[in-house]
């Protein structure tokens, strides 16, 4: 499995290759030390969200789905968490007598349906997945009896059900002409509605700790968990499993992948995360990706977006956001998707590097302050020992640039006095930020790539070896590149 390429594979001459001075990070010898903030980690902090109507297709008719999820299971020992939901959950009705998974009609295969019906088999299919599952149900239609019937079948059939959502992005219900919002609809009325539904659905199903509450996309505090929690009484609170928010930062590739931008974006959720933890519950990004509405063609399928995916998932995890679910929409019309029927998406590579950093880890710390282009994260094992470090150079480079690709030196100290070498895997793409798999510029992680359509890993796993002297080593990370350093 592990193939060392030998010292010759990488001979790092610290200062000679780089214009800028090295950025230096001290790797704490134990979790909890060194003045850093440490986030406890979920067993699998990086998950996938599937648009409600498209979920059966992803599981039954897209070959890559199982393999892409299984690749992460192989790394971590845990199936990644999934969430089934999105705009079409609020267009869906449950039909107990229907034998199909889901029924809808669309004018074009690129469209999402404006109305759809699902049967009990939909939840049985969700129950075949071995990782945790969040299922999003309808609140917009204001048919609570139908939603309770669906919730009952979800609880009965979805073996690994973690939570149920009651409504998706309810701040858009007025725009979407949803019946529940036909009168006054604002953050206060939505919060009252959520509390009422959480209690009624939770008690009808007879299950506490059932609801993933919140699920807004508009930024907090107006729409946010802190407001919701403040309005919940103890009875309602018992039915809440955890809180969620959605997020699509958008922007150009250059601004999206910039580390300082990502760090600032994650800080938007600080108060809500604190409110959730204060209520003794987790906080997750329940649906997220680079750009809303299926992604932007010029941004979302690129290697720059892959690096954003990696950095964003890690910044979220380091900020006590327990899980981040990257959204996958209409099959065949999804710029930000990690995989599709025919080609891989570059973002899968970024997510995989983040999964590799976190595999088997119990804690994560951001070693940088989030104020410039250079990031460092350290993960820690069950004994509190440092496990791996990820270094990210978010300086923008594309193959179209007139100037050569610059390198940034990262020096890590505190690597242990006795250590003479350390191994690392590189996440890179020759074309830089604009590289796309479907245009033939395949990224690689540790010298490996994933097959189009299959998601099967190919190529030889390759570690670089870097010399450690006096507990210190210097790594060269090119503009628009990342490196995972293995300390064990
Ligand atoms: C399965 O995928 C094929 C294309 O590969 C498509 O023509 C067919 O409609 C899909 N079936 C379902 C049930 O999604
Ligand atoms: C708690 O809040 C719910 C929802 O707003 C309400 O229906 C219920 O009566 C309240 N319970 C108590 C004990 O105040
Ligand atoms: C995350 O939560 C832990 C407590 O579990 C706390 O020590 C740490 O400071 C928090 N991190 C941040 C960034 O707030
Ligand atoms: C994936 O398909 C694209 C064409 O769509 C091709 O250019 C690329 O090289 C393929 N990647 C791999 C790893 O086979």
Automatic annotation (TrEMBL):
Superkingdom as given in the UniProt entry: Eukaryota
Protein keywords: Signal
The UniProt record lists the keyword Signal: yes
SUPFAM superfamilies referenced in this protein's UniProt entry, alphabetically: (Trans)glycosidases (SSF51445)
Span of the signal peptide: 1-21
Residues covered by the Beta-glucuronidase C-terminal domain: 376-484
Signal found in the keyword field: yes
InterPro entries (alphabetical): GH, GH79_Enzymes, GlcAase_C, Glyco_hydro_b
Protein name: Beta-glucuronidase C-terminal domain-containing protein
Native species: Cercophora scortea
